[in-house]
Amino acid sequence: MRPIDRILDIMRTLRAPEGGCPWDREQTFATIAPYTIEEAYEVADAIERNDPNDLKDELGDLLFQVVFHSQMAREQGLFDFDDVATAISDKIVRRHPHVFGDGQAGDSAEQTRNWEAIKAEERARKAGDKPLSVLDGVSLGMPALNRAVKLQKRAARVGFDWDRAVEVLDKIEEEVAELRAEIEEGAEQFRLEDELGDMLFAISNLARHLKIDPEAALRRANAKFERRFRHMEAAFAAAGENIGEQGLERLETAWQAAKREVG
């Protein structure tokens, strides 16, 4: 039995009304979606850690999510795994006419332009008679920072963009000033959230101009914070002290030491 046939058969057995797994049978597209997103992040984490064995396992977990969704759709008469595989194969061939047809693409930049043009045509066909927007097709399910970047890229296609990264920095400083003013005036929570959102949107725009993935940058910052904080905890523990009993001044001193010692 081919490995893909085996995993499809396992999924059918898990979802079987008789003899299947109660938990698996209870799941829906909505309840499984968070796990699908989590598995995609774990794939990215394995890549970032340069761990090929872990990457193999995480890709398997992500594939299982596709199989899970496909089986639920099959039970509802919507589509099955073969339909999913056929659809993506057709799409990839359609979007690479320079490989599978008589199209031309001199370099990766030209291919990217062609790819986006083909996607725009697909969106237009899908929309039918509905009004079109350059922002159509930007999924609401994307992480907010990445969705912000994608919205900005779409807007930039029609010239709605800053010319230089330094101009985005000016915008960030403006947003910081507006948030500061709201804090000092004791603004309501929804106003603070609104201004903070504007600031994060501007920061994601700066990341785009600098050709930096903001999600990847934040993951690196999270890892750096965790590394330094754990070092602080270990240092206090080695001295027989509890980190939770230290004042801010000692914590700041320990933090600076951690920065020097573990980067």
Concise synopsis of the structure shown:
With 263 residues, the protein is mostly helical.
Which properties best describe this structure?
single chain; 263 residues; Helix Hairpins; 3 domains; 12 helices; 0% strand
Content-based structural category? mainly alpha
What is the averaged pLDDT score? Answer: 91
Number of strands: 0
Structural Rg: 24 Å
CATH overall fold name of the largest domain: Helix Hairpins
- The number of distinct structural domains comes to 3
Which percent band covers the strand fraction?
A: under 5%
Which term fits the overall shape?
globular
| CATH homology superfamily name of the largest domain | MazG-like
Please work out how many helical segments DSSP would assign: 12
CATH architecture heading of the largest domain? Orthogonal Bundle
Q: Give helix % range.
A: over 70%
* Secondary-structure element series: HHHHHHHHHHHH
Largest sheet: none
Distance between the termini: 50 Å
Q: Return the CATH class of the largest domain.
A: Mainly Alpha
Low-confidence stretches: none
